[in-house]
Amino acid sequence: TLLSRLLTSRISFQVTRQPEIPVEPVHLGRGISVAAGVLLGLLVAILLLVLGLPRHRSPEK
């Protein structure tokens, strides 16, 4: 398919390029995988809060 051919050509281009030092920092928020990771982390955090985890132990005397 067209998508697989485009992906293959992009991968081969990245593999054959000369290494470069980045001139600016990597920005978060680019790409659907970053958004999916943020959403998944948020859902896990909300689930843990709803379940009451972590439970605090009362100090023993």
In the predicted model, the low-confidence regions spanning at least 5 consecutive residues are none
Count of helical regions: 2
Strand content: under 5%
Backbone shape: elongated
Domains (count):
1
Find the count of extended strands (DSSP E, 2+ residues). 0
Largest beta-sheet details: none
Distance between the termini: 69 Å
Helix content: 55-70%
- Gyration radius, in Å: 21 Å
Helix and strand composition category: mainly alpha
Q: Mean pLDDT, nearest integer?
A: 73
N-to-C series of helices and strands:
HH
Describe this structure in words.
By secondary structure, this protein is mostly helical. It has one domain. It is 57% helix and 0% strand. It contains two helices and no strands. The radius of gyration is 21 Å and the shape is elongated.
Entry keywords:
2 helices; 57% helix; mainly alpha; single chain; 61 residues
